[in-house]
Design brief:
The protein is built from 16 helices and 17 strands. By secondary structure, the chain is of the alpha/beta class. Helix 4 crosses helix 5 and helix 5 packs across helix 6.
């Protein structure tokens, strides 16, 4: 609204607003100062009266003289602001009272807490009467508190003064604003007439010798310059009109040439867009392939180092003279080494198979394969595992079907599906194998081989992740060992044999994995195809018990660390199977040191570290990463997140010992800096 007003109104608004702000600030300051002084003076006055009354009434309280106490209270009549008063005995009971009039509110029945209390219209004061260190009683005074009334009076006065000042400023401004606004209004009038009449010979009046006069001179010079240029422009327009005809002819020729050029540019643009699209697709494919390769190498490194950690760790314990072990422990350690070695061998074979399949170097010998023979072989090979787990198995009776496949690879596929059905089945469950043919006659059509189990089944989310490398669908922390590659290799091999693979599953009831291969005529027969010496001493460098928390989902790795820590009596080991449990145990037991695996179910090691750092109780605890993921980028990223050290599996006991001692020394320095004692 202020922008739409004239300059005179703007000037008036600015002056009045400035005056109003100045008055509000000055009057507000005066009113606040006076009200504050009134409040302080009232409290000081009533406090002084209470002290005088207490001093005068100490004898009356000491000798139980109510008459003298009443006389002292009646002296308050000379203080009109004091509306009531009372004296209380030492036990808090009322001794004598005074009220200025009958409208005064009732007095408190007993003495209150010493101090002031302000209500809306009154202030009350309790003050103890002490003589020679002995409490004689309490004096009570009540006075009118007129702060609200004084505030209203001041506001009324301030409003009147403000209105009067604004009126005076308005009257002065209406008489003096002509000197400032009139020259500017003259310039505006002349400018408006020039725009309406196109008469650039008009000039504005010069009424003063100030900055506005300089503005008038500049405006008049500008009009003179515009007038000269207008005449020059009119003369040049005639010449331009002549040239316009010539340019029109040239423009028509240019338009014709532009049309031809646009057609050619459009053709070239379409070719370039097509080439760019192909290039973008190629770059995206290369980027996706590079990312998939990095993710695969990272996962493969972790999976290979996990069994190697158990093998090398237990081997170092067995080869050490400083870490004695019993015959039973040696057998147990050898069993762990053998189990991890077999798992490592299986993992390496599966990785090699996957590498061959992905690189296209795998060679398949597709030939007719009789299903009854290969199913019998698979049943004989898998029967001991099924018997050991108490799982019943049913196979079709002498299936006459024959499929086109590589016999060795088909056997590998069926063994993988059957072993998965046994490993992830329930106790005393069942595995059923079935063969179905969808064609007519012996040749043609497709044969479906199904493996059904009675396990826990798979959810829809797990089904979408089924054929991803190293993805075990939440079974990483289970008792069953696996790599997460078997089904990926199986799918690739089935695809190479011109087949298909699928699964149907119901959570809680079981899953059915099936493959489909091309049926062919049967042929006569199937084709065949060490612990360092100073380890214990190093871990004894510091005295006193130390609690260490190890968060690991692999049972073999847990057992290895338990055995290593067992040689150091001063170390007390706590274990957790996942990140969430590890965080809760850290908050509960407050260990001096935490060993953390990175690839944990539910909550990863890096997420668990962030939870520990966000909690003030556990933020100071050093956390050592102990993982099979040895990719350089992962090491740098983890150290940047706040891990104290990053150890890779298999464990090197010298490095492990040095890291434990370094972390304990770090904890000791922290405690010394805080004035405490190192553990």
């Amino acid at each position: 609204m202020l922008r739409l007003r004239s300059i005179r109104h703007k000037l008036m608004s600015v002056v009045l607003l400035t005056t109003l702000v100045a008055l509000v600030i000055s009057l507000g300051t005066i009113v606040i100062f006076d009200l504050r002084a009134y409040h302080r003076n009232l409290l000081a006055d009533i406090s002084t009266q209470a002290e005088l009354l207490g001093h005068m009434s100490s004898a009356a309280l000491a000798f139980d003289d109510q008459r003298l106490a009443l006389e002292n209270l009646n002296l308050m009549r000379i203080r009109p602001r004091v509306t009531a008063g009372a004296l209380y005995r030492a036990d808090g009971s009322l001794f004598a009272s005074y009220q200025a009039n009958n409208r005064t509110a009732a007095l408190p029945a007993r003495a209150g807490i010493e101090g002031e209390r302000i209500d809306a219209n009154s202030v009350e004061l309790f003050r103890s009467i002490v003589d020679n260190g002995e409490l004689l009683g309490t004096v009570y005074l009540r006075a009118d508190y007129e702060l609200a009334g004084r505030t209203a009076d001041y506001l009324a006065i301030a409003l009147g003064v403000t209105v009067l000042a604004l009126l005076v400023a308005l009257l002065l401004l209406r008489r003096l604003d002509y000197m400032i606004t009139q020259p500017i209004l003259d310039i505006a009038d002349v400018a408006r007439e020039v725009i309406e009449t196109r008469d650039y010979s008009r000039r504005a009046r010069k009424l003063s010798s100030d900055e506005v006069a300089q503005l008038v001179d500049s405006f008049n010079k500008m009009l003179a310059e515009i007038e000269l240029r207008t005449h020059a422009l009119e003369s040049s327009n005639v010449e331009l009109a002549r040239e316009a005809g010539q340019r029109a002819q040239a423009q028509q020729e240019i338009m014709r040439l532009n049309q031809q050029l646009e057609v050619r540019v459009h053709e070239r643009t379409m070719q370039l867009e097509l080439t760019n699209g192909e290039l973008a697709m190629a770059m995206e494919e290369a980027r996706s392939a590079n990312y998939a390769k990095s993710a695969f190498l990272s996962s493969m490194s972790h999976e290979l180092r996990t069994p190697l950690n158990a093998i090398l760790g237990f081997a170092q314990i067995l080869s050490s003279d400083r870490l004695p072990s019993t015959l039973a422990q040696k057998k147990e350690f050898a069993g762990h080494i053998l189990k991890s070695g077999r798992h490592l061998l299986t993992l390496i074979n599966e990785i090699l198979d996957l590498a061959k399949v992905e690189s296209g170097t795998v060679t398949l010998s597709l030939e007719p394969v009789a299903l009854h023979a290969i199913l019998d072989e698979c049943r004989d090979m898998i029967a001991p595992l099924a018997s050991q787990r108490g799982i019943a198995m049913t196979f079709p009776d002498a299936s006459p079907l024959t499929v086109l496949a590589d016999r060795t690879r088909l056997k590998q596929i069926l063994l993988n599906l059957l072993s998965n059905a046994l490993k992830y089945n329930r106790e005393h469950g069942r595995v059923s194998v079935d063969c179905e043919w969808d064609g007519e006659g012996q040749a043609g059509g497709r044969v479906r081989i199904s493996v059904h189990d009675t396990g826990s089944g798979l959810t829809d989310e797990q089904l979408t992740q089924l054929f991803q490398p190293f993805n075990r669908l939440g079974q990483e922390g289970g008792t069953e060992e696996g790599s997460g590659i078997g089904l990926v290799v199986t799918k690739r091999l089935v695809d190479l044999m011109d087949g298909s693979i699928g699964v149907t599953s119901e959570p809680g009831e079981g899953s059915t994995f099936w493959i489909e291969l091309r049926a062919v005529d049967a042929l006569p027969g199937p084709s065949s195809s060490s612990v360092p010496p100073d380890l214990a001493g190093a871990l004894f460098d510091n005295s006193g018990p130390v609690t260490v928390l190890y968060v690991e989902d692999n049972p073999a790795n847990l057992t290895l660390i338990e055995e290593i820590i067992g040689y150091c009596p001063r170390l007390r080991l706590l274990t957790a199977r996942d990140g969430r449990q590890g965080v809760e145990m850290a908050r509960t037991h407050m260990p001096q040191l935490i060993l953390m695996d990175i690839n944990l179910p539910d909550v990863s090691g890096t997420e668990a570290l962030q939870l520990l750092r966000d909690d003030d109780r556990t933020a100071h605890i050093p956390v050592i990463a102990l993982t099979a993921n040895a990719m350089p980028g992962e090491v740098e990223r983890s150290m940047a997140l706040g891990f104290y050290r990053y150890l890779t599996k298999p464990i090197n006991l010298e490095e492990f010992s040095e890291t434990i001692n370094s972390a304990l020394a770090y904890v000791a320095r922290q405690r010394l800096q805080k004035g405490g004692r190192a553990p």
